[in-house]
Write a structure and sequence with these properties.
alpha+beta, five-stranded antiparallel sheet, four-stranded mixed sheet, 13 strands, 25% helix, 20% strand
Length: 417
């Protein structure tokens, strides 16, 4: 099987860009296509167009959606041809054998690391009084039928268990996170823990058990809103797991999602911040990390295509947590609207702070600010908000710093010009 995952600029929903700050159901976040098929290799454009339009909250840029989907189908066709050429060259039996070797490499790497695990229980409290709780431990002699892998020939072997008992119940908002996101976060953190270029595949997960409480923040009901779960709760989840494995202090714990919509288009960006420090290294400043491993659009390109000006964008000094190894610094970004424009912000760590590790101090909280044209004072906004800007209004976003590692010393801090 081949798959192509894409992020579309807009698929409908309450607000342009399909990142509403206050969605309560999946439908409010965009058009839902459940198993929509291509038949006999035909791209059913008319049917697809109807589905994108015939919705309570229809897609806004249907032609762009269709072109993006065509590109994804073309990518899959290219992959299919390449895979068939490989099979013709090497033979199906050899390809399957190599796939199994790669899977076993991942499993073996994790099993060899398990004796080094120190069991930990961690609670990460979120801005909205919810929490992610996890207990990480090794369970001996677990039968394979109880693990995530169903292979019969593996016998009884030690298993790495992630038990999320104590995690908050399903949210009435949009911070819910599907189990697939939890699995992805665990696989990502395990690769960091292993420290080698282990193949990122299901082989690693053969030695893993994930226990998720039903109807919880990490295992929501089918129609629950999830847009912030994918981009915000996922960041908090990675922070929780990094601390549970004693790898790194909390990072900024948010993607600082900003979605803009105006008369002729929309734009979405995530803002960088500080990462957590670890043993023998400082956190990184002004960087995208973990689930938001991306880059911002260049200012010249941004201002040419989006009706906003970037007044300033610089490192937010002293926002990283102090420690023997300091947390990374966040950023200060100021934008001015050039015409009427709707905005949605999904952000975290506006109330809580990135926790330090091993005696390190917490990083600074983030802050979203608004100043209307003609006003002298800034208004502090909620972490999640949707509103409309008029020409001359200004939006300032201060992103959080990361937590420090180890007890602070007088010589451990780094100053910036």
């Amino acid at each position: 099987w081949l798959a192509a995952r894409g992020h579309h600029t807009d698929i409908g929903g309450l607000t342009p860009g399909s990142m509403p700050a206050h969605s309560h159901t999946l439908m409010e976040e965009g058009v839902i296509l459940d198993g929509f098929l291509l038949k006999n290799g035909r791209f059913l454009e008319n049917d697809l167009r109807r589905r994108l339009i015939d919705h309570t909250y229809p897609a806004r840029y249907v032609e762009q959606n269709i072109n993006d989907l065509r590109a994804q189908v073309a990518a899959l066709q290219h992959g299919r041809l390449a895979l068939n050429r490989l099979i013709a060259q090497e033979g199906r039996k050899r390809i399957r054998s190599i796939m199994q070797v790669i899977l076993k490499q991942g499993e073996r790497a994790l099993r060899e690391k398990l004796p080094q695990l120190v069991p930990q229980s961690v609670i990460n409290r979120l801005d909205d009084d919810q929490q992610i709780a996890v207990r990480v431990s090794v369970i001996e002699n677990i039968q394979s039928k109880h693990r995530s892998n169903k292979t019969k020939d593996q016998g009884s072997q030690p298993t790495l268990c992630f038990d999320f008992k104590g995690t908050s119940e399903v949210s009435l908002g949009n911070r819910n996170t599907p189990p697939s996101i939890t699995s992805s976060a665990i696989l990502y953190v395990l690769r960091l823990w292993l420290g080698d270029a282990v193949p990122l595949n299901e082989g690693v997960m053969r030695a893993v058990m994930i226990k998720l409480p039903s109807n919880s923040l990490l295992s929501p009901l089918p129609n629950s809103a999830v847009v912030a779960g994918n981009v915000e709760t996922s960041q908090a989840l990675v922070d929780t797991l990094l601390v549970a494995l004693q790898l790194q202090a909390h990072g900024q714990g948010t993607m600082n999602n900003l979605t803009l919509g105006w008369k002729t288009g929309s734009y979405y960006e995530t803002l960088c911040g500080g990462t957590g420090a670890g043993q023998n290294y400082h956190g990184c400043n002004a960087i995208h990390c973990h689930m938001t491993n991306s880059r911002l659009t260049d200012p010249e390109v941004f201002e040419r295509n989006v009706p906003m000006l970037i007044n300033h964008f610089f490192i937010r000094t002293e926002s990283g947590g102090k420690g023997a190894w300091r947390g990374g610094e966040g950023v200060n970004r100021l934008l001015t609207a050039q015409e009427t424009i709707s905005i949605s912000i999904l952000s975290s760590r506006r109330v809580t702070r990135a926790q330090g590790l091993a005696g390190g101090k917490s990083g600074a909280s983030g802050e979203n600010r608004l100043k209307r044209k003609g006003d002298n004072e800034w208004t502090v906004l909620n972490g999640n908000i949707s509103l409309t800007l008029q020409a001359g209004d200004q939006l300032c976003i201060l992103t959080p710093g990361g937590g420090g590692y180890g007890q602070p010393t007088n010589t451990s801090q780094v100053k910036y010009l």
